[in-house]
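Q: Got one fold?
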Amino acid sequence: MEKPIRYRPTSAQLALRKLIREKTRILAYGGSRSGKTFEFCHALAAIGMRYGGRYAVFRRYFNAVKNSVFDDTFPKMFELSFPGVEYRRNLSDARIVVPDANAEFWFVGLDDDRRVERILGREYAGIYFNECSEIAYSSVEIATTRLAQRRFDRDGAPLRNRAFFDCNPPGRSHWTYRLFIEGINPTTRVRLSDFETYGAIQINPADNVENLPENYISSTLASGSERMKKRFLYGEFANDSENALWKQETIDASRAVAAPRDLERVVVGVDPAVTNGERSDNTGIVVAGRLLAPDGRPSFFVLDDRSLNAPPDRWAREVVETFRFWQGDAVVVETNQGGDLVAAALRQIDPNLPVRTVRATRGKILRAEPIAILYEHGRVRHVGVFPDLEEEMTSYAGPSTPNQSVDRLDALVWAITALADDGGDCVGGFLGV
């Protein structure tokens, strides 16, 4: 007979539990799979079973909080940490109820206005913002106003209402860094008068290695780009370039879980490398799609980054395969350096490939500025995380960043520019903002 699995928190997770007892606003930031979500779910459950009451777990998108927390982490946490405790899962409401404790836990996506309105019509004894780097601070402010339910344990001791936050740390311009590290209100820029009630702790995968699959750190996390490792392995806030057109906060705030099924146009943007070798530039290959709202205003979705360092025959084949995979409408290729040979390389593989050639007549910054404005207005959403692309976006500041390759960024700009210009107007006129 197999012995039941028992959960034993690591020293870092025990330190987080200590912080939860001492503070009322707690941020756990760090790399991927470090146990942050499990520990905050455990804390909510433990508090709920002692005091009863209503608790909410917020995330930017409902599908994300349902699939990752309601369906996965929360039930696993109950089985490992509170074996034998009876609880019920209400699938229609995405709600978990512990009858004996008179406690209920709601799982909320901030992308559903009607559901948010109903959820925020109630008061809560505790709230948890999961993956809060994706959540706008304005949403946090509104949700926190509902942290007002008064609860007492069986001995009459009152509960101190708490708000939990976790994230893979974005850039230092993000509100999480301003609020929890600098102690500054992200909206007013005024120093917090109650900063002593805030606590932050860094927890990384290395702190949770005994609970991770073998080689997860060495094979999965350690193989990424430096920016990816900084965020998802080392769990450090990134230094956004002051002069860069994009901030990680802007990208994170509009991230999408899945692409809309009714995209009405998809293009593959290509910025080809003219040389081949280990030190050569990459060929940027970025896929983007467009969706028109009823009022005719477009939204854009970054679907894929297939950029690679390879000779022309290989990257050309990758472009064609990417185009077919995404059932694209056109391939947009910059021909400043390769000329007609670039389009010819693609058509050697697929003679019917709809190739549209473009030539850069302005500098990178001038070409990118209209696209950056689209991001600022929430009109471009990344479907998933593209660390290498996002590293280029948040670090490139024009001639002041010499010797930096931005092939992915160029491919992105060409793709979205083409989608915007297909509306019969220039990018600047097609913004509608």
About this structure: The chain is about 35% helix and 20% strand. Residues 424-433 have pLDDT under 50 and may be disordered. Residues 11-232 form a domain with the Rossmann fold fold (CATH 3.40.50.300). The CA atoms of residues 41 and 74 lie 6 Å apart.
